[in-house]
């Protein structure tokens, strides 16, 4: 128990049950590498002067000496227990309200007492009613006043503690001081409630019954506690709740309230909490106080640890775990070997940040707490399933009724202006995030009044309101990437830079919006300078168009790709990892004199290599919002884990598809017509058929084969995951003999593994299975369900692939609604009997249809390039991915060649 020493020293009030002199005796087992982050300051109670802190240097020295002895004695011993997955826990302590319950029970408890007291004390029904009304009124007033006082206190503490120091760093003294203030608040409000008399007049059973009816436990928490008890761990509930019996009635027969001092019993969940005082079985209105405040929690937890340490037969390697949700839990959270913050709310997040306490996802907790390092770290989760996996290992998941584990979602915070016309700004950004597989959150910087004719005006959001939005998002939801757009003032730019640093944002995409497409200024004059100085040094990618690059470089003129290269190099000097200078404006100018063969060249520079990203210009007036769209598509890709280069490539592919599909759509009367960001799923009657599958999804198309998986001892989900790691962006489940029920279950498992990674899953032949599991689509052959029927059954949003060996079959497939054609077998294959069409046949099919074609049959790393050069947009492979020892390496090799071919083509 790594932190026992520190927590024993930290004592916050009541005397420690073990004498100071006995402390060295406690270190009877190896916990090599004990770390003392609470440093030298410790506290003891001084009854003569009330509670105050004083340094306990002597205690420190004794403990230090004990630990050194311990380290010497045990450094040669390996831990005796623990398996690769399950943790070896000595004591598991859990807070009650909001940690085991889905809400706070205090108000329920009081309301239950009031209702019961009405019946018992009221006399006539009218008197009963009046009494209840009066007390409810008192309760409402008290609840509001309590919350307001708590909010004010927290705000005050945060500002006090964040301004008190120079460079913020973790300091146990600050934690203690904050807990003292929180404790004063808790004590005051406990007393104030007692003084109102509203807790008077109920029976124990009234309280239990009525309160329990209004309280729900988190799913799975009882299972976790029950298992811990069966394992013989010490399981404790430590709560500031006013009724231990309420807790007991919710936890059932496994729970016990120890008589007198908590004993070390291990066959029950022991509850340490307060209790309503009773006289002749009726509540008196008073509370018997055991755990009244944050300090008490710290003290009682310390005592629990000390009892555990002195317990006979204790495994000296066993660890302590504390799970709690709020500021009142901070001391035990820090004192435990593993402190788990459950369902962290904004207040808790703010406080932990102010105290410089690092918080990581629970899934990142090491097996050995020594690996946490010297500074305190807590772990967060919002799922008892995760806690179960943390304690018992992945093989010991919750029983079947447990909901699916939460799906992690790539998150992008967009800091930008609102476009009332819906075409650009945050409106474009959010649509783009969704279409690129990310979840977009926003901090709105300005409300612009605009439509297709231009910008009529803007109302800038006050800087503190922007800050509040950013904090609200980042303290709770977090962001894998931040994308900035319109930042109207230098002050806002500096704020964003500060927040990016404060929240340690990994990926930042800066779209330096200075002037709108229609020529209106969207930022004050000094914004360019602020972006250069404050934001660009933090940026992963900065995406100026030509006029923006000119403005950022102080009025330079950019007329050619060579000029763009120079600009990219100079902008890189300001510190971004990548500069993407977008060349669309040069084409718009050239367009005035020429109408054919134009291409757009964007210049990407990473400080070493200049890359030209070329594509044919798409002549359309529907370009409003393209800058925002490209930048947020890049941010979405980065949030999903793509490298900056891949992010830019994929984002360009998205914007190209959108631009092509948006030609001709019209909203208002002006020239600034918008894009159809959802063109892959929404068809507004534009000329181009909207694909349900993006081109990039088809580059490496994995088609599964159970026989090969069995041979290599891989489950279908494992095989699919390996293929995804190898770069597969779409997976087809091809099962010819699997019973339907098994197929459905397997498809659900694969979908659960693939979707969070942005990978589509389609079903071979079986439209019914695809519909049952809500797969991304279906692939049908010439002898399967006719393509037109499959399309009708699937609807427009789903992917439909059709096999073709001839031009006629391919053309018909397109007419019938296919999103892509699978053409093959291009080369001989032993996976399936299929006549070979060769590269020639593939080329004919590719030139006959406008939907993408993927090559299938005998495709491997040595021939993938030739298929792409013949015109296909990707390759579908079975054996090269699933009948090999290292599917990842094989997939990557094939994908690299496909990418090369697509670049050349
Ligand atoms: C991407 C892709 N292309 C072609 C096929 C072959 O499908 P089909 O003709 O239906 O033959 P079976 O796969 O059912 O044997 C495919 N599966 N995927
Ligand atoms: C599933 C399938 N369909 C084909 C067709 O010709 O339509 S060839 C084929 C098997 C492809 O397997 P491998 O990548 O191992 O060669």
From TrEMBL:
Pathway assignment: Cofactor biosynthesis; thiamine diphosphate biosynthesis; thiamine phosphate from 4-amino-2-methyl-5-diphosphomethylpyrimidine and 4-methyl-5-(2-phosphoethyl)-thiazole: step 1/1
Cofactor(s) the protein needs: Mg(2+)
Keyword check for Transferase: yes
Keyword hit for Glycoprotein: no
GO BP field: thiamine biosynthetic process
Class in the EC hierarchy, top level: transferase
Catalytic activity: 4-methyl-5-(2-phosphooxyethyl)-thiazole + 4-amino-2-methyl-5-(diphosphooxymethyl)pyrimidine + H(+) = thiamine phosphate + diphosphate; 2-[(2R,5Z)-2-carboxy-4-methylthiazol-5(2H)-ylidene]ethyl phosphate + 4-amino-2-methyl-5-(diphosphooxymethyl)pyrimidine + 2 H(+) = thiamine phosphate + CO2 + diphosphate; 2-(2-carboxy-4-methylthiazol-5-yl)ethyl phosphate + 4-amino-2-methyl-5-(diphosphooxymethyl)pyrimidine + 2 H(+) = thiamine phosphate + CO2 + diphosphate
Domain Pyridoxamine kinase/Phosphomethylpyrimidine kinase residue range list: 419-670
InterPro entries: Aldolase_TIM, HAD-like_sf, HAD_sf, HMP/HMP-P_kinase_dom, PM/HMP-P_kinase-1, Ribokinase-like, ThiamineP_synth_sf, ThiamineP_synth_TenI
GO molecular function list: ATP binding; hydroxymethylpyrimidine kinase activity; metal ion binding; phosphomethylpyrimidine kinase activity; thiamine-phosphate diphosphorylase activity
Residues making up the signal peptide according to the UniProt record: none
Key words, A-Z: ATP-binding, Kinase, Magnesium, Metal-binding, Multifunctional enzyme, Nucleotide-binding, Thiamine biosynthesis, Transferase
NCBIfam families on file: HMP-P_kinase, thiE
Protein name, per record: thiamine phosphate synthase
Organism: Ostreobium quekettii
